[in-house]
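Q: Given only this backbone (292 positions), what sequence would you predict?
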């Protein structure tokens, strides 16, 4: 029996100034020593410029389940979602992702996901092709690779930047963290202008809702951001942080970069309507620099 549950409410969407905001309540219920429950609720807020609001996925819990899957497996929390989860994702998480991670690392626990199931045929597809633009070597390699790709249907149409944990305590004080974030967003704007691709600037408070170690969970939280916009994206190139390690290493995965097993997780998340690729997974960062 699990230690508790993480419950995801149905999403609420509204326009606020020049942005579209999607909110969902995240409630953690833990069993205490007295036989009762300790309950804590936080509101997860995710916003995009209003002209991109139509791309938000409001009717599925997929993004939220991915966001907290790693955390819940560490803490032994079952996931309960009020909104449906796609049939594809439910099957692949319960039949492949959870069993494989548990098999390879004793720190992960087998958890249950309780949510209505939406048939994949009911889910619409996005139209655009994107990649993140932190301007680190991984994201710049994705830009280099797909900006003028020979198959025009797979060329980049948009860049994006978001904060799902990269701007964290490793930079020191809150003031310093905000400065680093501002610099990164400014840099992304400059890159966007230089290649003449639109930049989607995303804001999110996920790191304040449930703090996670970005080093070990970044694939999951980054995919949360991508899947929140699943009705916008058709293809998304995720700049691999696997550093040329084939991105298939599952052993000891609770204490290594989640990018080391992107080639396991990302194909299982992809469903033909939203395809997510681990770009540059075979290259270390020295090779990526040479390519660029």
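A: Predicted residues:
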């Amino acid at each position: 029996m699990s230690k508790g549950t993480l419950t995801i409410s149905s999403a609420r969407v509204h326009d606020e100034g020049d942005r579209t905001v999607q909110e969902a309540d995240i409630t953690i219920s833990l069993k205490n020593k007295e036989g009762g429950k300790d309950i804590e609720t936080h509101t997860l807020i995710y916003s995009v410029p209003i002209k991109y609001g139509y791309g938000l996925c409001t009717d599925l819990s997929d993004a939220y389940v991915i966001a907290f899957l790693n955390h819940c497996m560490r803490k032994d929390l079952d996931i309960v979602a009020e909104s449906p989860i796609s049939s594809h994702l439910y099957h692949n998480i319960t039949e492949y992702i959870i069993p494989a991670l548990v098999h390879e690392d004793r720190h992960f626990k087998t958890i249950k996901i309780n949510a209505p199931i939406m048939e994949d045929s009911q889910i619409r597809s996005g139209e655009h092709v994107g990649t993140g633009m932190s301007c680190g070597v991984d994201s710049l390699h994705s830009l280099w690779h797909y900006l003028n790709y020979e198959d025009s249907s797979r060329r980049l149409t948009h860049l994006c930047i978001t904060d799902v944990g990269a701007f964290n305590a490793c930079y020191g004080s809150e003031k310093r963290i905000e400065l680093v974030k501002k610099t990164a967003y400014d840099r992304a704007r400059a890159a966007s202008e230089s290649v003449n691709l639109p930049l989607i600037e995303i804001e999110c408070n996920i790191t304040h809702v449930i703090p996670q170690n970005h080093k070990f969970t970044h694939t999951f939280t980054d995919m949360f951001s991508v899947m929140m916009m699943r009705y916008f994206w058709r293809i998304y190139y995720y700049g691999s942080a696997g550093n040329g390690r084939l991105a298939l290493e599952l052993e000891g995965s609770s204490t290594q970069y989640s990018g080391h097993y992107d080639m396991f997780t990302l194909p299982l998340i992809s469903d033909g309507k939203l395809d997510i690729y681990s770009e540059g997974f075979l290259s270390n960062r020295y090779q990526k620099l040479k390519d660029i």
